[in-house]
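Reopening: 3-isopropylmalate dehydratase still failing for me.
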Amino acid sequence: MGMTIAEKILARASGRDEVRAGEIVKAGVDVAMMPDLTAVLSFNAMREVGREQVWDRERVVLILDHVSPASTLQSAAIHREARRIAEEQRLKHFYDVNAGVCHQILAEKGYVRPGTLVVGADSHTCAHGALGAFATGVGSTDMGAVLATGRIWLRVPEAVQAVVEGDLPPLVAPKDVILRVIGEIGAEGATYDAVEFRGGAVEEMSVSGRMTLCNMAVEMGAKTGMVEPDEKTLAFLRGRAEGPFDAVRGDADAAYKAVRRFDVGDLEPQVACPDRVDNVRPVGEVEGTPIDQVFIGSCTNGRLEDLEAAAAVLR
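Support: Ran it again with your exact input. Result attached.
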């Protein structure tokens, strides 16, 4: 029997020929990323296990972005300590405030490559599965162990295919697609699964759109979201990612927990209503609801094409 994308990546990372869903593996980490709010806690956890230096300065990325610029004395103190740590550890990849959203930096600066294992002390690290990596969020304690050893234990997840077909109607975006998927699968419906986004609609999406899908995989409980690498992936990586990589593809006879199919050809813009992300309704059902505040951006939708879409509406 063949292997899924996730199984292949975790097999490589753990030095094995094959692994199967449900197995526990000790995997070598290719990239470890921390934003400001979890970085100090992570380094404290590293010291608690007796290590004073990170296992590999080339593989650690520290980014001050969640509270940027610092809005309170507490967040300013966190930034100051993070800067001190970056200097003490002689980190090669440190980004101060206003460099950008952590997940955008990882992608644009070429830290993420297909076939690699990326962990981040932020739940939306799964966004980088859009580039064919196994990317997942971890807590500060687990990140401390990664900083100390370069390794992490993981249970190999079962895989679920979310097959999305159809041409997106005008004003319907990848964010609407993932809200539709979450609305059907549920906020806990893919717990610890590796969700592979496939189908013609996904193939037509830009890398930015695919990152939106994978970013929100965690909102249905998934361990990661993934898109199989294709020419769009490789084009995005040219001039960004350095070094060799393996554009891992799943085997035709791999085992999947489920295959969910979605036709988005007549999809309306979607709205996640209070108080759950899976309380999703077509915009027509909530038309006329007063809006008090609009936020444009975030790690899910903060890229140029998202801002262009907002500008087109506001113009």
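DSSP finds ten helices and 13 strands in the chain. If you still see a failure, please send the error message rather than a screenshot.
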